[in-house]
Amino acid sequence: MFVPELPEIHNLARQMADELMGREFAGVRVRQPKCLNVDEGEFRAAICAATVQGITAHGKWLVMHLPGGRMLSNLGMGADVLVRPEAAGDGDAHVVFSFTDGGLLTLRFWWFGHVHWVGEGEPHAPTDSLGPDALSLSEEEFLRLLGNRRAGIKSFLVNQKNLAGIGNVYIQDILFAVGLHPERRIPDIDEETRRLLYREMRDTLRQSLSVGGLAYERDLYGSPGGFAEFCVGYREGEDCPGCGTEIEKMRAAGTASYICPACQV
Ligand SMILES: [Zn+2]
After folding, report:
1. Residue 72: in which H helix or E strand, if any?
2. I need a surface site. Which of 90, 157, 245, 252 has the fewest CB within 10 A?
3. Structure confidence by residue, pLDDT tens digits, 93-128
């Protein structure tokens, strides 16, 4: 039900930067070669002896910058990404990285995920086609992005090609907070509401990031995040905190939506 979105991925990127910057890979073990975009030998050759130069996030993708290219990870429906001492073992993780100074970085996907190697200057369709990261976008850029698009607001915002980082979790309360029905067409949303929507989106993502993301996800040390409370999200049948109307579950943009039918029009 819950999958990692921008706050969880940015939180992991920050923690990985703290732990891994400047460290050198000793080796990598791949138990699920399907998650790679290149063959295992090429992947190993790119990673081994490389020093971590930086870690960033773009939407739901983790980007590790290495000499000669980038290693890009997408956790799909979720994953345990952990740093741990060698003595703790690798927990049968799908991808296990070791470092020359000891210690492991392990990835275990809950369903399926991706770890890609992209050499310097090479294209990478899944991230080349992403829209701007939802937390690096200014209010004016957001207004330009919506422009005179004709889509429904939810389907537009969760499409990673428009805006990277928001999925079906955070969108629920963001739309509730500004009184927008998920299927409201963009042309019918006035500028004031568009600005409120931008601020709500930014504040919700920042607030979750500040507490380490969702309580249903784990960070680099295996600890849950602190974001646990939703207003209407996942509260089907309960009372709307604004007006008391019963919260409904419906389908919008091909996914489950939770709305107050009185507050969201
Ligand atoms: Zn309501």
Report:
1. strand 69-74
2. 245
3. 999 999 999 999 999 999 999 999 999 999 999 999
Sequence letter at residue 89: G
Q: Identify how many contiguous H helices and E strands the chain contains and give both numbers.
A: 7, 10
245 C-alpha vs ligand 1 centroid, how far in Å?
5
What type of residue is 132?
P
Determine the distance separating the centroid of ligand 1 and the alpha carbon of 181, expressed in angstroms: 11
Which residue ranges form the domains of the chain, and what is each CATH number?
Answer: 6-126 (3.20.190.10), 139-259 (1.10.8.50)
Q: How far is the CA of 176 from the centre of ligand 1 (A)?
A: 8
Q: How far is the CA of 198 from the centre of ligand 1 (A)?
A: 21
Distance between Cα 199 and ligand 1 center (Å): 20
The DSSP call for residue 86 is G
Is residue 47 within 8 A of residue 154, CB to CB? The reply is no
Question: What type of residue is 161?
Answer: K
173 Cα to the center of ligand 1, angstroms: 12
Tokens of 154: 């939810």
pTM: 0.95
Task: Say how far apart CA 238 and CA 248 lie, in whole Å.
Answer: 8
Q: Residue 45, SS3? A: helix
For 192, phi then psi, to 5°, come to -60, -45
Q: 108 alpha carbon to ligand 1 midpoint, in Å?
A: 40
Q: What are phi and psi of 108, to 5 degrees?
A: -125, 115
* Confidence band, pLDDT 50/70/90 cuts, at residue 1: low
Furthest-apart CA atoms within the chain: distance in Å? 59
